Automatic annotation (TrEMBL):
Pfam families linked to this entry: DUF1801
InterPro entries xref list: YdhG-like
Protein name: Uncharacterized protein YdhG (YjbR/CyaY superfamily)
Domain YdhG-like, chain residue ranges per copy: 22-117
SUPFAM superfamilies per the UniProt record, alphabetical: YdhG-like
Top-rank taxon, per record: Bacteria
Organism: Haloactinopolyspora alba
Length: 124
């Protein structure tokens, strides 16, 4: 797999190697990220982690043995949203754990993305 700052083919390859339910769940999350932040770049990092970036890393996702993970890349943001996140999912530091049977709600992901984009590109 290539390790560049923009390599959607590597992301496709990674996702293609996952079991159907995990691939579908992560692909849906991927499409939500890309539709919410159209200018986002994507790549694989550490061989298995999908990273989405603007000026810097924005969010990430990965399939792990017992769950899927969504990386907010911001412990402060995850802490500020902890009560909302823990109503339906587990959170550890800046990482939200979920499963294909219990995907992340789109409105939650959209709020996380809006906060991360605002942090990287504050309004003038």
């Amino acid at each position: 797999m290539a390790r560049t700052k923009d390599d959607p083919a590597a992301v496709d390859e990674y996702l293609a190697g996952l079991p159907d339910d995990r691939r579908t769940a992560l692909e849906e999350l991927r499409q939500l990220v890309k539709s919410t932040v159209p200018e986002v770049r994507e790549r694989i990092s550490y061989g298995t982690t999908v990273i989405f970036a603007l000026d810097r890393d924005l969010v990430g996702l990965v399939a792990q043995p017992k769950h899927l993970s969504f990386f907010t890349m911001s412990p402060e943001l995850a802490a500020s949203m902890k009560s909302e996140i823990t109503r339906t999912h587990k959170v550890s530091g800046a990482t939200i754990h979920f499963t294909p049977e219990n995907p992340l709600p789109a409105p939650l992901v959209e709020r996380i993305l809006a906060a991360r984009v605002a942090k990287q590109r504050p309004a003038s």
